[in-house]
Design brief:
This protein is of the alpha/beta class. The chain is built from 14 helices and 34 strands. The strands form nine sheets. An eight-stranded mixed β-sheet has the order 8-6-5-4-1-20-21-23. Strands 11-12-14-15-19-18 form a six-stranded mixed β-sheet, covered by helices on one side. Strands 28-25-32-27-33 form a five-stranded mixed β-sheet. Helix 3 (86-95) packs parallel to helix 4 and helix 10 packs across helix 14.
């Protein structure tokens, strides 16, 4: 007789310090009229309530229960900017996950914040391909041997495994994170990441040899790589993932995507739960003796305010309001604003006062919406409208420190969102636009390496390279402008590169000479050669500007200019065939 093993699962990922409910938009229709419906969803107090309910339901039904976090708790809001992970640990402890996988943003500032986080959490942090075998044993914040960290076992080329009960069997949980961590984050030099697929395959084989067939991979690889993982590694029962901010579930009726929840690749279901603590994944699973998921019933859920804000071309009558609210209430992926009072009180009393003060500190004014898009498009042929202003700010504020630079260069992913018309507050910059407090770096570099840097960064952003790192690599500049043609052979795609030069008190554009030295300024992240910027490591010298971080430069620029006025000249002369076709 085949036994059935039942599990109730709750999961979140990429919460990025969004402790409060986040603003969300739905597109609804009534009587052939379309309406934009705005609301606030999620947040830790609402997630806490729903997880508590699910845990109680599992206990009443005799089910095993798991609550998992798919990584990237850090960064994203003023809460992280102000409290540097302390609030994250505190509030996650109150949610009580069974495990979390290490995300790339946990290690943006090196290993020290990870060590502090491990010291403060009450649950295991899984990083099964994080290789600490070369870690300096005398360093102050060493991670080796930490009891809360499930890292890599180099002699077996496999992961440390968390075991949880599943009926009369054991469920093994393997935590796997990005093996490109050196390219997109800032782990310490003595910390390495083994191949994600190879580590998973070796660990699964070891577990199978031990008679453990129920195997869950808690992944921070992203949607596309999770599908590859499921295809290439046989024997995985279930993947619970994060990193790509993928929302599963059929939300097409309310204006969102219709990606199936529990999408299967070779009989392995994959579960992701969106982003920013807006949604919570909840499902009931059944496994057979061999670890195969035979039944999966569940959904991702928004957790909404009971009051709706509705915009449309027609006046919104009471009858229309009620009809639109009924549409939301009827959707299987909608829950409401029940919350755990204890978590709400902790946020309100201990953490929000510092945030409220920043929300009221006005820096300047933006006369029009400035759209941030990582890549140029037909709608925005020169790309982001805000990233060039960020580059202009770091150029001018560096020069205001009497540090001579010729240009500024920054990656698109370092700017996180658009700026809306109106006043701009300290909270807008530190919490939303530029949440990463990266120091600036000045460097002197030959022109030939600027050609290489720009081409490599665009190749990576557009996947015109073997190892593309995503659209966040795309370069924005001030004092440089260029033309790129993806149809040309590698090494010849930058057709024209010019630098703004002061001659006799007049600013003029001149071609960048391959053998000439130029002075640039970038964030420490970009200057360290991440995400296609490896050629910057060929600089003759790099010098950290200790007195200035990326957000500080923009804040000072805003205060000095009292806003962003005028038209920013494009940094792209002509962008031809970004995709190479």
């Amino acid at each position: 007789m085949t036994n059935r093993y039942s599990l109730k699962l709750a999961h979140i990922n990429d919460t990025h310090s969004h402790f409060d409910p986040s603003r969300v938009q739905f597109l609804l229709s009534h009587e052939q009229q379309s309406y934009e419906v705005y609301n606030h969803s999620g947040g830790y107090a609402r997630i806490g309530y729903q997880v508590q309910q699910a845990r109680s339901q599992a206990a009443d039904a005799g089910q095993d229960f798991l609550f998992l976090h798919g990584g990237d708790s850090f960064q994203g809001t003023l809460y992280f900017n102000q409290f540097k992970g302390v609030a994250n640990a505190d509030l996650l402890n109150r949610l009580a996950p069974d495990a979390m996988v290490l995300g790339n943003h946990e290690i943006d500032a090196g290993n020290q914040p990870v060590k502090q986080f491990l010291d403060n959490i009450n649950f295991p942090l899984l990083a099964g391909n994080m290789d600490l075998s070369q870690e300096d044993p005398h360093k102050q914040d060493k991670l080796t041997g930490h009891p809360k960290l499930f890292d890599y076992i180099p002699e077996h080329r496999s992961a440390k495994v968390l075991l949880k009960p599943l009926g009369d069997r054991q469920l093994a949980i393997i935590g796997i994170t990005l093996d490109q961590m050196k390219e997109i984050a800032r782990p310490d030099e003595d910390t390495h990441f083994a191949d994600a697929i190879e580590t998973t395959a070796n660990t699964v084989a070891t577990l199978k040899a031990q008679g453990i067939d129920h195997i869950l991979v808690l992944s921070h690889l992203g949607w596309d790589k999770d599908k590859i993982l499921a295809q290439e590694v046989a024997g995985i029962s279930l993947i619970v993932g994060g990193h790509s901010h993928t929302l599963q579930g059929d939300f097409s009726a309310i204006g969102h995507n219709a990606l199936p929840y529990g999408y299967r690749v070779d009989n392995t279901p994959i579960l992701h739960a969106g982003k920013y603590a807006e949604t919570l994944g909840l499902c009931d699973l059944e496994f057979d003796d061999q670890g195969l998921v035979t039944s999966l019933a569940g959904h991702n859920y928004f957790m909404l305010d009971k009051h709706l804000l509705i915009e449309g071309e027609q006046e919104v009558t009471a009858a229309t309001y009620d009809a639109l609210k009924r549409q939301l209430m009827a959707h299987p992926g909608i829950l409401w604003d029940d919350e755990l009072t204890e978590i709400n009180q902790v946020i309100t009393q201990h953490y929000r006062p510092a945030i409220d003060a920043l929300e009221h500190q006005v820096l300047g004014f933006v006369p029009k919406n400035l759209i941030h898009t990582r890549l140029p498009s037909k709608a925005l042929p020169h790309g982001s409208e805000i990233a060039p202003w960020v580059c202009k700010s770091i150029y001018h504020e560096t020069r205001n420190l009497d540090i001579q630079v010729d240009f500024a260069l920054h990656n698109a992913g370092g700017v996180r969102q658009s700026l809306n018309k109106g006043t701009v507050t300290m909270a807008d910059i530190l919490g939303r636009l530029l949440p990463f407090a990266l120091p600036l770096v000045k460097y002197r570099i030959q022109g030939r390496y600027l050609y290489q840097t720009l081409e490599s960064a665009i190749n990576s952003a557009t996947n015109n390279s073997i190892t593309g790192t995503g659209a966040g690599s795309f370069p924005y500049t001030y004092g440089l402008k260029y033309c790129y043609d993806g149809r040309q052979p590698l090494g010849a795609r930058i057709l024209q590169l010019e630098i703004l030069t002061e001659i006799a008190g007049e600013m003029q554009w001149h071609s960048v000479m391959p053998d000439r030295l130029y002075s640039g300024v970038s964030s420490a992240y970009t200057a360290s050669g991440k995400e296609g910027y490896q050629a910057l490591l060929s600089a003759e010298q790099q010098e950290s500007i200790e007195a200035l971080t990326l957000p500080q430069a923009f804040i000072r620029f805003m205060q000095r200019e009292e806003g962003l006025h005028g038209v920013m000249p494009p940094h792209v002369l002509y962008t031809s065939h970004l995709d190479g076709h």
